[in-house]
TrEMBL record:
Name by which UniProt lists this protein: TrbC/VIRB2 family protein
Top-rank taxon: Bacteria
Signal peptide (UniProt feature, chain positions): 1-41
Keywords, ordered alphabetically: Membrane, Signal, Transmembrane, Transmembrane helix
Residues passing through the membrane, by range: 65-84, 104-124
Any one Pfam family match given in the protein's UniProt record, by short name: T4SS_pilin
Amino acid sequence: MSGTPHSAFFRRRHVRIALRLTLSAAAVTATLLALPTAASADPGVIVLAANDLPTVVANLRRWLMGILAAVATLFAVLAGVYWATAGGDPSQVEKAKSALRNALVGYGLAVLAPVLLTVVRGIVGG
């Protein structure tokens, strides 16, 4: 049953749906990051940096952890989709295992992001 055109159709369909969801989430994230934020400075004052270095590093850490966790979650979902639609195909199962490994690496990097940014802050003298 796993080799029927019917199962291949649904496998491709699930992958296309997951890809569309991924692209939609990326587009929303890019749009939100591109939108200007309201500033409360006087019109005649030029502000070069709104925050000090520790605040910038803390904000960067929060964003980095969120983005890494989101990408890792995406890979975990893709691994589930690949595994569910594998139908016993060894290459699809291997693709699912690879996506799951990538998800675990992403979660590991999200957990290590505060440590890495603390090292960076120590290097630049913040």
